[in-house]
Amino acid sequence: MKSGVMCIAIIILALAPHDVRAPLKRSFISANSNDGSDCARPAPCRTLAAAITHTVTRGESHMPDPAGYGPVRITNLTSFNGGVGSIGILVPSGRSGISTRLAQETRSAAS
Questions:
Q1: 74, 99, 69: which is closest to 60 by C-alpha?
Q2: For residues 23 and 40, what is the distance between their CA atoms, to the nearest angstrom?
């Protein structure tokens, strides 16, 4: 009886949906999306904070349309690219729009 219950539990866990998302070199953000998306071009994120969590170090986040993408804390080297024109950030009084906390990067010199 115990082995039958164990087999059923293993099958249920194996068939359960998993949220396994590989980090992207290039993520996308859109005003008409949500943060439940994987931030790829076909399914962009809604906020800068979600995009940076899905983007590898030295990756890029693209914002093709103007919108309020919320505050972001930059924790790795990344680029934010807007569409045609410029990127602006509106920040409520007394709040931060962009904050950074980068660990010092160590590089070895080539001989």
A1: 74
A2: 10
